[in-house]
Amino acid sequence: MKVRSAFLLLAALSAPAFAGSFAGTSAGATSGGASASSGSTSGNDKVVLQAREDAAGFVASEGRIRGARLEAALRHLRETRPLAREASDLELAQAILAR
To answer: How high is the pLDDT of residue 39?
Structure first.
C-alpha cells in the first residue's frame, strides 16, 4: 500500500514539471503572458528542486535534520498538490529526491 501511494505521489510531483517544460518550449517567446506563465510554473518547481539537499539530509537523519528549503518545499507541495497533503514529511522528502 505504501509503495503504491509513494508511486502515485511521485507521478503527481513529476507531472507538473513535464507540463511546465512543455509549456515553456511550445509557448516560447510568442507573448509576454505565455512566457510569464511558464516562468511561474518553473519558479514553483524551483522551490522543490532547491530542497533536494535538505531532503537528502532529512532522509539520511531519519527526520532529525530539517532545513529551511525542505520546509518551504513541503509547504508548497501541500498547498498545491492534493496527494501531498496525505503524505508524511518523509514520503515527500523521498519523492523530492526521486525527482
So the answer is: 41
> What CA–CA distance (Å, rounded) separates 69 from 54?
6
Q: What is the dihedral of CA 24, 30, 36, 41, to 10 degrees?
A: -20
pTM for this entry:
0.62
Task: Check the CA dihedral 19-22-26-27 and report its sign.
Answer: positive
Closest CA to 89 of 67, 74, 99: 74
C-alpha cell at 80: 498545491
Sole residue written with cell 518551504? 72
- Rounded to whole angstroms, what are the CA distances from 61 to 8, 84, 93, 96? 25, 21, 12, 16
